[in-house]
Amino acid sequence: xxxxxxxxxxxxxxxxxxxxxxxxxxxxxxxxxxxxxxxxxxxxxxxxxxxxxxxxxxxxxxxxxxxxxxxxxxxxxxxxxxxxxxxxxxxxxxxxxxxxxxxxxxxxxxxxxxxxxxxxxxxxxxxxxxxxxxxxxxxxxxxxxxxxxxxxxxxxxxxxxxxxxxxxxxxxxxxxxxxxxxxxxxxxxxxxxxxxxxxxxxxxxxxxxxxxxxxxxxxxxxxxxxxxxxxxxxxxxxxxxxxxxxxxxxxxxxxxxxxxxxxxxxxxxxxxxxxxxxxxxxxxxxxxxxxxxxxxxxxxxxxxxxxxxxxxxxxxxxxxxxxxxxxxxxxxxxxxxxxxxxxxxxxxxxxxxxxxxxxxxxxxxxxxxxxxxxxxxxxxxxxxx
Length: 385
What we know:
By secondary structure, the protein is mainly β. The chain is built from 5 helices and 20 strands.
C-alpha cells in the first residue's frame, strides 16, 4: 500500500492557504501582471462552456488543469482528452491557436492515478522590421509557448483525495539574437512549477446531500520567476488559488443537472518601479524605487491586498440526458472585476457521448463588443479504452 503521509501534508497546505487571513494594512498589490499567462487558459470544452468552472468536478483527464486530485476518482478507464481552439478570435489573428492534450491511467501498484498533459499556444509568425520600419523577411520567426505536466493523485479516505503535479514551462517569444537597446540576450524563458490539490466527493453517504455534493481546492503554478533578456526584470508565474463547489440538483436514471461555482485568485504580489523625481536642472529631488516581485511562498500571504475584488467568480450548469450519459447541454457566466482584468462573459456549449468516445464544444459570448474573447470556440474530443 502506498504511503500517503506526503499526500496528507499536501492537502493540509492547501487548506492552510484557504483560511489564511489577509493583512490589508500592511500589504498592497500594485499589479497582478504575470509571465506565461497561457497557463491560465482553461482547456476542455466541457468545463469551458460551464463558465470556466470545474474545480469541484474534475472527472476527466483535464483534471490535470482543473483539479489534479480528481484523477484519484477515475479508475475505470484510461482516457485521452484533446482540446483545440482558435484563440482570441476577436483580434482577427488567423494563426493564433491553443491546443491541449491530457491523459490519465490508474496504476494499482502505486495505489493512484497518473496523469500527463501538454499545453501549446501558437502565437504565430512575428514580422521583424529594422529601426526605420523596413521589413526583414529573412529574420521573421515563429513564437509559441508550451508546458508539459505530470501528476499523481490518490484517495485519502472517506471521500477525500489529494494530488500533486509538476510542470516544465517553455516560452519562446523571440529567437536567441533578440536585442533591446544595448542589451542582447535570449527571448526564450524556461521555468518549472508544481501544484497541490484536494477534492471531496463522498459519492456514498448517509443522506442525499452527501451523495450529490463535492468540493475542490488547488494551488497551481508555484515556482520561480521566468525571465527573458534581463533576469532583473523577471516575471512571476501565474500562481493561482482555485476553489469550487458542485451539487447535483437532479440525479435520476436518465436526467442529471449539476450546478457549480468556482472562485479563483492570483497569488502574485508585484510592485512596479518608480522613476526619479528631478527638478528643472535635472537634480534628483526624490530617488525612484526599484520594482519588486515577492517569491511565490511569500506572495501566498502578501497578495491579498485587493480584497474580494481580486477574486474571479464563475458559475456553471450542466444537464445530461441518457443512461449512460448521452447528450449534454451547458451554460455559465464568468466575472472578473474591472481593476483586475475586466473579463465578463457568458458561455454556452453541448456534448455527446457514445460508448467510449465523446465530443464537446464551447462558445464564449462577451458582454463588451469587439472584445478579444468574443465568439471564441473550443472543440474537445475524448477517447477512453
